[in-house]
Amino acid sequence: MTAYNIDTLKKLVRPEQIFENEPMRDHITFRVGGPADLLIQPEVAQVAEVIACCRKEGIPYTVIGNGSNLLVSDKGIRGVVIELSRPASNISIDGCRIYAEAGAMLAKTASLAAGEGLTGMEFTSGIPGSVGGAVVMNAGAYGGEMAQIIESVDILDEEGNRRTLSAEEMDFSYRHSCIMEHPYIVLSAVMQLEKGDAEQIRLRMQELAVQRKEKQPLEYPSAGSTFKRPEGYFAGKLIMDAGLRGYSVGGAQVSEKHCGFVVNKGGATQADISALMQHVQDEVKKQFGVTLEPEVRKLGDFE
Fold first, then answer.
1. Residue 303 reports pLDDT greater than 80
2. Which of 68, 125, 152, 225 is flagged as catalytic?
3. pLDDT for 245-272, tens place per residue?
4. Is 73 marked active-site?
5. Does the pLDDT at position 105 exceed 80?
6. How many helices and strands, by DSSP H and E, does the chain display?
7. Is 57 marked active-site?
8. Which residue of 6, 48, 247, 269 is 20 to 30 Å from 40, comparing CA positions?
9. How far apart are CA 83 and CA 67, in angstroms?
């Protein structure tokens, strides 16, 4: 960071919100990745000012949430990583609407909804991500997706203005939203739920938790489903049918429990994971003529 003036940035946040040479492996669920030059954990009200400062000083910046869908380079990330996490995780409930800041965890938000007897978020209860990240990629599971419950989303646009986008303006589709095409930053979201039976909601969440534990390799670090579902196929079945169950590169492995997951069995590097993902893509393409598109987003210096 010696090439950048970070003194102004340090004045915008409290000392406990800013970290220099921060290992990114501690901030993504794959548990790999080199250091970020600087990592800041702002409150929602501080985001616009932090980004304006980065732009003024010519400091590159990257915005992340819980890191549950990311693969960070072994070389790390240059510039500033703005992590929307605990300081940006306020949640409030008004009738059947839930307001959640981008750093709020989906599981906690779903639990609070259940406590209020609100149904519609059960599918999110086991997704290890934040509200912001889930909105960006229209996260889903077990037949549900964020598009079904989002009423509106507050974003910071490319000019630093705070705007509210309707669900229609978000242009949701499978693992997609308009955020992927624009330099927008999700600050918060309003979710519209329905009144339900609190006990039945809890039971449904418990059922999904059991299914997840039985079918997914939750005992190892991963980024969830590694590849998007190809039209007409299931990525995990294609990978299994290609004979790649348990295939390893270094500490990275195609999960023996669910072939749709690449896991860190211990000591994996980004290079291991990248090489394994590429081999899986090559084999599936060669054997079945299907192109697997990664669901995992890459950050940092990839050669």
1. no
2. 225
3. 999 999 999 999 999 999 999 999 999 9
4. no
5. yes
6. 7, 19
7. no
8. 269
9. 9
